[in-house]
Amino acid sequence: MFHGYWKSSILRFESWTKHSIGASMAGLAAELSHAHGLPVVDGVAAAVKLAESLAVLGLKTSKLGAYASPLARTYTGMFAEFAPRAA
What we know:
By secondary structure, the protein is mainly alpha-helical. The protein has a domain at 2-60. The chain has helices at 2-20, 28-36, 43-57. Mean pLDDT is 77; it is low at 19-23.
């Protein structure tokens, strides 16, 4: 029983390495999903689709609270020469 389990595990690992080393993981999620009968999400494809949908909707990072631009600071002493200058 264990022999068959380990053999199938090794075959799955070899299949995975053939698909993932030096190449994209495109198609691997579908193959794994079909082989195991479980839904598998391709993380890279999901991230790209999320970024695309945010761009299409025109959504951007919030500018409120913790995401607000920092307040202007006064540069004094030896750092005064590094103060931003108005254009």
